[in-house]
Write a structure and sequence with these properties.
Blueprint lengths: L7 H11 L24 E7 L2 H15 L3 E7 L1 H4 L4 H12 L3 E4 L1 H9 L7 H6 L9 H10 L6 E2 L2 E2 L3 E5 H6 L11 H8 L23 E4 L9 H9 L5 E2 L4 E2 L4 H16 L16 E4 L7 E4 L11 E6 L1 H6 L11 E2 L6 E2 L10 E5 L9 E2 L7 E4 L6 H11 L2 H7 L6 E2 L20 E2 L1 H9 L4 H18 L4 H25 L1
Parallel strand pairs: 1-2, 1-3, 7-12, 16-19
Antiparallel strand pairs: 3-17, 4-17, 5-18, 6-12, 6-15, 8-9, 10-11, 13-14
Helix pairs in contact: 4-5, 10-11, 11-16, 16-17
């Protein structure tokens, strides 16, 4: 599923795992080509990156060997990345620090590009014949879509989602394996063929796998609420729940009802696992600490980890799950922590013995291959006000270059944006992550909606869906409530935006 309105959590998590960088769109035009930078040339380069040590380890040392007379300065973006409003914080950071090149999240990239704070790379790409054709087309498409049609940054890696499946469970119950290009309806039908056995949402992490729970489909690890799956399926079908230009919410429709009904039925029957509690709660979770042991910690509740424990036939998730399942020997530090306590301890991450593979994320036959699951975790962009453009461009070329992609593909868990250097995946169908097209319609809706509306709408909708799942209201009543309350939220958000 799409990261929660392309929120910061996924980007920070990818940073903590891969230590790569950047994105942007819609800023200063690079119509005039700038001079080249030779190895012997002197210069300076100021880079905004999460922390200095990580930068030199990943990029700085090698770049200085290439350009020994370029003086490097690294300014930390950790405070901006961890701020309550990372976009506004990054705008302030760039204004105050004036880095030449900077690592951005996708949301930061889009907003800074729109505000004219980033350098248009088109002229530089043409001047150096920088080969964009070696990148996954969807990555370049997404960069341009988020940049208002122009290229303001480059991303060496990307994240997307695929449908994981447990081959042993499919064999045991005589269910045919899923295949690339399936629709959501087909996947839900497969999920319903497994004998559902609901487990406890409040089981502790050290007890995951100890009960006899079985689900046809479990939710992604970072699923926050019961509405996310509904939104994902709806977007795959080309459904939109709000139109800011028309100032209307459109959710109480036959098309949305069909989606909601199928998901609610799946939750009720137990063929789809439910979210334990807001934020993945439960009696513990898998915790992954951010860079340098910092304060950024990601917690995944037990109810979202049924696939890793062999208790779900399928799940939709990103490449991080592949790494946690043991691909390429990646070891992730984990700890259990009782809810509300400060106690922690080591625990072996489940999933090492699951016989699994993956296929493309479900899409809709009307938009084959189109999905909103792709995101760019690490985008490098150039400050439109930079006075060191040649050095900044050389750095972007290196960070997104062929040689680094080749090296990283052998050691990094991230998905390389350069298709020639797809990660080695122990015979797994890694192409499932690459065979996706961006959902431009969903992107346009996301960017046109007032700030904060999508999050408020989805939180409200999740509450109504939960009531339908619990049987305290019908699906029809849930649709009517979401329609009415959603319209009120949109009207207020538009009024607040107009008053600013």
């Amino acid at each position: 599923m799409r990261r929660n309105r392309r929120g910061l959590a996924t980007s920070l998590l990818a940073l903590s795992l891969t230590l790569t960088a950047c994105t942007s769109g819609g800023g200063k035009e690079g119509s005039a080509a700038f001079g080249s930078l030779d190895r012997e040339d002197k210069g300076t380069l100021k880079v905004g990156y999460f922390n200095e040590e990580a930068f030199y380890m990943q990029y700085g040392n090698a770049f200085q060997a290439m350009f020994p007379n370029v003086e490097l300065e690294v300014v930390s973006t950790e405070e901006a990345m961890s701020a309550d409003d990372p976009v506004a914080a990054m705008e302030s950071f760039i204004e105050e620090q004036q880095p030449d090149a900077v690592l951005l999240t996708e949301d930061q990239y889009a907003e800074l590009a729109k505000d004219g704070k980033l350098y248009d790379l088109d002229a530089a790409v043409k001047q150096d014949s920088f080969d964009l054709d070696s990148f996954l087309p969807s990555v370049i498409d997404l960069l341009k879509a988020r940049g208002g049609g122009k290229l303001y940054g480059l991303s060496p890696t990307f994240s997307s989602q695929a449908l994981y499946y447990n081959k042993d469970l499919f064999d045991k119950y005589g269910v045919p394996y899923p295949t690339d290009g399936m629709s959501w309806e087909e996947v839900m039908q497969l999920a319903a063929r497994f004998p559902a056995k609901k487990g406890s949402d409040n089981v502790s992490m050290d007890k995951v796998g100890a009960d006899d729970a079985l689900y046809g489909l479990s939710l992604p690890m970072q699923t926050q609420d019961s509405f996310e799956l509904i939104r994902e399926i709806g977007e795959a079908k080309g459904l939109l729940y709000a139109d800011s230009e028309a100032k209307t919410v459109s959710f109480d429709t036959p098309e949305w009802k069909a989606v909601v009904q199928s998901v609610v039925d799946g939750y009720k029957s137990g063929s789809i696992s439910t979210v334990a509690s807001q934020g993945g709660g439960g009696q513990g979770g898998l915790m992954i600490r951010g860079m340098g042991g910092g304060k950024t910690t990601f917690s995944f509740g037990p109810a979202t980890m049924r696939f890793m424990s062999g208790q779900a036939a399928m799940t939709v998730d990103g490449p991080m799950l592949m790494n946690m399942m043991g691909i390429k020997g990646v070891k992730m530090a984990t700890a259990t922590k009782a809810a509300g306590s400060g106690e922690g301890g080591s625990v072996k991450a489940p999933g090492q013995d699951v016989n699994w593979d993956l296929v493309t994320i479900p899409t809709d036959p009307s938009q084959q291959g189109v999905t909103g699951s792709m995101s760019l975790d690490t985008i490098f962009a150039i400050n439109a006000s930079s006075e060191n453009l040649p050095a900044a461009w050389e750095f972007l070329k290196y960070a997104n270059g062929e040689q680094l992609a080749k090296t990283s593909s052998k050691s990094s868990p991230a998905l390389s944006a350069r298709t020639a250097y797809k990660n080695e995946a122990d015979g797994k169908n890694i192409d499932a992550f690459y065979n996706e097209k961006i959902n431009e319609q969903a992107l346009l809706q996301e960017e046109s909606l007032p700030d904060g509306f999508a999050a408020s709408f989805e939180e409200m909708a999740a509450g109504q869906i939960n009531q339908a799942v619990q049987g305290t209201q019908s699906v029809d009543d849930a649709l009517k409530a979401i329609q009415s309350q959603g319209q009120d939220l949109l009207t207020k958000a538009l009024a607040d935006e107009a008053a600013e």
